[in-house]
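#onboarding

Welcome to the new folks! Below is a worked example of what a typical request in this channel looks like: someone posts a single protein sequence, and someone else replies with the predicted structure as tokens. Don't worry about understanding the tokens yet, we'll cover that in week two.

Example request:
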Amino acid sequence: MLSRRDLIALSAVELLTGGLFAAAGWAQTPNSGYPSKPVRIIVPVAAGGPTDIVARTLADKLAAIWHQQVFIENKPGAGNNLGCEYVARSDPDGYTVLFDPGAMASNTSLYGKLTYDAVKDFAPVSLVALVDYFMFVPNSSPAHSLKEFIDYVKAHPGKLTMASPGTGSAPYLAEMMFLQMAGLSMTHVPYRGAAPAFTDLIPGRVDCYFGSGTLLSYSHSGQVRVLAVTGAKRNPAAPDVPTIAEAGVPGYEVTGTQALFVPAKTPPEIVQKISADTNMALADPALKTKLLDTGYIAGGSTPEALGQRLKSDIARWSVVIKSLGIKLD
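Example response:
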């Protein structure tokens, strides 16, 4: 069982201070001639899901800054590893960028055999956003609160289903932690991305799903029901939704990350430029508001700060995954 200390360590997500944005080096981006051609952002999950939406929003902003096409290429599969491996093996020229949905840190402990090293094969660029996950159930569910959901599952052990956008994904781990801490038994149903999982949740083909705030529109329109949020405090996008901790599972707390990485050996000046321009895009009030409305908190960073965070998150997830007893091939 996870200790409260381990849980707090896992999700102690510190927003990188506004002082970073004032750093002198970010006042002007390096004049390296980059980019001189279209840039690809590899998203290791299926198109149409929450991660994909945020990546496309950022891509549009970068395209406007660079006056170059920035297009999204989805490479889902193998718990995000297909996309990660593709970027790790790409030319280190800055024209192939990974949009990591928080998978690399946990995959280091989840998988016994990886074809890439999260630290050695990538150059960190910038944090993009901090992400809370919301607990959704179909309208056909008898549960109208977290307590009712817990009671319902306990009355039907192993007979109800918990969907995820993929085994090993950040929502999957948040779900497994919830089941462990609440003492529940559910059957996990993995999908190739959030969109197909949520499509099955709406008509009740699965019984629960943890997703980002981009899906809150479905609860606002009455298509699904939202019971709780995983963060340390209520999310501004849905202030009436309680945290899992306050609603019945004390000590539970998970906040995910999204970030940009490029292949190792990418020239430092290109890494710095992508980072600087990403931070410029994320500082845009309209973009920050758009993300905040869907439960995301824009959180740019320096490459160095993201590198430190990656190593810290690898260590934190290692503790959690060991406690959960999860190991994937």
